[in-house]
Amino acid sequence: MSDSRPIGVFDSGVGGLTVLLELRRQLPAEDVLYLADLAHFPDVPRPQQQVRELTLGIIDLLAGMDTKLVVIACNTASAAGLHAARERFEIPIVGVIAPGAQAAATATRNGRVAVISTAGTLASQEYLHAIKEANPGVSVLGKAAPELVDIVEDGDADTARADAALSDVLADVFAWGADTLVLGCTHYPLLRPALQRVIGRRRVRVVDSAETTAARVRRILDVNRLTGGAGAGAVLEVLVSGDPDRFAMTADRLFEEPLPAPTAISIGLPPVSLAAAT
Amino acid sequence: MSDSRPIGVFDSGVGGLTVLLELRRQLPAEDVLYLADLAHFPDVPRPQQQVRELTLGIIDLLAGMDTKLVVIACNTASAAGLHAARERFEIPIVGVIAPGAQAAATATRNGRVAVISTAGTLASQEYLHAIKEANPGVSVLGKAAPELVDIVEDGDADTARADAALSDVLADVFAWGADTLVLGCTHYPLLRPALQRVIGRRRVRVVDSAETTAARVRRILDVNRLTGGAGAGAVLEVLVSGDPDRFAMTADRLFEEPLPAPTAISIGLPPVSLAAAT
After folding, report:
1. Which of B273 and A49 is assigned the larger pLDDT?
2. How far apart are CA B151 and CA B252, in angstroms?
3. What is the ipTM of this complex?
4. Which residue in B135, B139, B220 is closest to A136 by CB distance?
């Protein structure tokens, strides 16, 4: 038995492409509907409640497109909206926090895990809870590093600007003695070369959610008999609200094969004024 | 290397004894400090915030008694206080919800899990989230059944009164088609004989948290190199605030060997007036 419906994946910006890349690699036979909501999620801090409403609106849209499972490929949206989404929708929904948290809890040898993320994700404490759920004996240090998102979005991920920002953010992490660092934002895997320079010879293992989330999706499809499309050439459809050039720039950097041209969409959510974001 | 400090276990009432029984069975070499706070947790619905404060106060007390790990052996207190406790204390803290939830997500064949619990536990939605975290493809039906606690506390667990109450509570569960039932309150395992009568020949698997929580504690001690006391006769110390007779009645029913005489304690928390509970 197989289920040929697509997997829905969405992100606020370009970071979710790191998750998409892993999903394509690990589940090459699955159709994917990828939605990048660049219009509603400019990377400014928003109140949790607003992120939650936007997340629910997009999942509603994807569920209406006959997806069999939805991945919230964004840490901030997972932190703010995963619980509410699971209370509201029957379709299986996967966030990116628990998979990375479990990988980190397993990876650490000295029981000290640091997490860098946006301010919204840090405030939610979802990483702390997910890591302690995996192993309550692990200590967690959270650090907000929102400037790293701008650096990636500006195309400066592999520059001296990135090195300087990472040195600054990671000083506390090194001083605290973490042996495991979680990249708690889907943008951050794009900083891997700069991260390696800043970490240098320190014994710090870097964990991101992209690979572990894709592995999680594979297992969930399997357990629930939702695996599909075996044999057929899998289709990737990309929907983008807002500026498609910003999307294309990161997509070109990450993917060897060009992605299909994105379809511009207008999402039926009220645009949120920046003045309201506090 | 071994760690001879005791495990701390606490409950609001007598239900936690079902968890204690399993801990003694699975970890016979571990010292245990068991605290039953009968004075502060009479089984009336309390606001979440109040349960959280009481939970934090008791963990503070147990941490001060040099325990190496604390088990919140009560679903209502786990639902209200586990997250806050993990944010506040460095000592590993284990709740009873996730272990039972994971066992249920693994046990179900048709993807329909029902959970009976107190009203506070249901309102928290912690079971729904823990089950969907284990497998987001599982559907969850929650039912509050607070009257079952009174039945157990009154010593009527194996009577026609219990059968009638369970028939009433489980009618929806049977109609919905659940193949797995989680006993989401540590009192409920005492109702097993009545449950078996009411379930009859229906194919419904019953999962409780006592066994899975003890297994979880064993694994956490192991992973974090906190296992202790190998060889020595393990000591169980029992502290009870409030009415020791109520405690002794259930203890006698559950344990073949008599438990040590409880030490009466007065816990330094302000008694909460019933009038304030809404």
Report:
1. A49
2. 17
3. 0.88
4. B220
Cβ separation of B133 and A92 shorter than 8 Å? no
List A34's β-bridge partners, or say none.
A9, A238
Burial bucket for residue A121 (CB in 10 Å: 0-12, 13-18, 19+) = buried
Q: For chain B, give the mean pLDDT.
A: 89
Q: How far apart are the first and last CA of chain B?
A: 49
Radius of gyration of chain A from its Cα atoms, rounded to whole angstroms: 18
Instruction: Find, among A274, A75, A111, A265, the residue nearest to A185 by Cα.
Output: A75
Inter-chain CB proximity B90 and A226 less than 8 Å: no
- A273 pLDDT more than 60: no
Structure tokens at B210: 């006592």
Query: Are A39 and A241 contacting, i.e. CB atoms less than 8 angstroms apart?
Result: yes
- Three-class secondary structure of residue B15 per DSSP: coil
Nearest beta carbon to residue B224 from set A98, A111, A129: A111
The CA distance from A272 to A255, in Å, is 31
pTM for the model: 0.90
CA dist., res. B186 & res. B144, Å (int): 14
Distance CA A110, CA B32 (A): 26
Q: Inter-chain contact B128–A90, Cβ cutoff 8 Å?
A: no
